[in-house]
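agent> call fold_tool(seq_1)
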Amino acid sequence: MALTKDDIINAVADMSVMEVVELIDALEEKFGVSAAAAVMAGPAAGGAAAAEEQTEFDLGLASAGDRKVNVIKAVREITGLGLKEAKGAVDGAPATIKEAMSKDDAEAAKKKLEEAGATRRAQVILVLMALRAA
């Protein structure tokens, strides 16, 4: 019996964020694609007219990982929040840490979080776009 698209969507919807992250990594490895590359290749692969480049980005946090204190420090540095608010944001993961950031600021903040030990938020749609482009 073959799986339908709805079966796959429902299975992904029932997964935890960490399971989706692992699924994305496995799909990237299996098909030799990157979710980050899909953002650039997605509109072009679809044959659509040149899309406007995204100018605002939201920074998401999937989990603090094993180095929670370092992640809290990074969140404080990125957002300007106080200790209590930053701890609450990290404890509330998965969550959006900061919204409407420029591309350069978002990339720098993402790097700080990953260096601190945080796990990035999974973006399932990017993997699906990468698979379609491949």
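agent> call fold_tool(seq_2)
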Amino acid sequence: MNYGTFIELEAKIPAFGNIRTVTCYINTTTQMTHNYPNPWDFHNTYKTLVSPDNYHKVVYYDLNEIAMGAPIGGQCFLETSDKKKVKINDWCGGPPAWEKDGQLLAIPIWTRKFLKGTVQQIGVLDTRNMELKIFKKTFRVLDIRSFEKTTIYGYDSPIHKTERLNFDIEKERVETLIKLTA
């Protein structure tokens, strides 16, 4: 079931010389806008940052807005229960999602691409091999909700022109494979 949100904006229109109020209707779902965490609001206290096996935890540092009012991103590390710390990437978004067995982590990674601007790519961290696969496909704003076996579910651009995400890591092209070291 779709719900919507009304937003009133005031704009000064130079041709008329005064301020006009415009009411916009944004078609959203409660699943997209009322979830916590989301790409605009997540932090290190969120319990799903800990792997299901309780051995790993994702920790963010220096989170900042990508642009004014935009989602946040920053350095991201994987910490183990034996206090090892490994950098995943310098510019990760969130929230990430663990695969049910706790060995794979799906995480949005911010990047800049020629002619596309600032976009996100899906990174999948294999904690057994300590390898980060960054997939070639780009997205506007990822809102990853779950990771089941080989498929990542969520939304691309959860507020504007939303598209459902159904990303099978066995069928998508890998752009980069990075071996992570402590």
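agent> summarizing second result for user.
Helices lie at 30-33. The first strand starts at residue 3 and ends at 13.
agent> awaiting next instruction.
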